[in-house]
Write a structure and sequence with these properties.
This protein has five helices and five strands, in the order βαβαβαβαβα. It is α/β, with parallel strands linked by helices.
Length: 127
């Protein structure tokens, strides 16, 4: 079964890198993109998404604010915060929102653990 990942980042290049990396690790998954938090919330209302990867620093709502809102609407959805802002406070807030922390620049090694855990959670029969 294919899963859909919502990638939220104000950088088009970052979205391209994430889409390619996800494609390399999970070729049967599809990706949909949003450029900021408000667009992400609108997109998830229009298109089903199983997994969300959010940038932290974006115009408008930051990734943690979006993660907290998504967590209240979708308590079991795998969510990750991907950021170069590696501060203890950001990591702690991501954990409080039950979001996985991924350090940027994102690469296959950094993303693999989150995607494997999401697949196990959402598709337990595929193990």
């Amino acid at each position: 079964m294919s899963l859909r990942v919502l990638i939220v980042d104000d950088s088009k290049l970052a979205r391209i890198v994430l889409t390619r990396t996800i494609g390399a690790l999970q070729p049967d998954w599809s990706c949909v993109e949003a450029a900021n938090g408000d667009e992400a919330l609108a997109t998830i209302g229009q298109h089903h998404a199983d997994v969300v990867i959010l940038d932290f620093n974006m115009p408008g709502k930051n990734g943690l604010e979006v993660a907290e809102e998504l967590r209240s609407r979708f308590p079991d959805m795998p969510i990750a915060i991907a950021t170069a802002n590696i501060q203890d406070e950001i990591i702690s807030r991501a954990r409080a929102a039950q979001a996985h922390f991924i350090a940027k620049p994102v690469n296959e090694d950094g993303l693999r653990g989150f995607l494997v855990a999401a697949r196990k959670q959402l598709l337990p029969e595929s193990q």
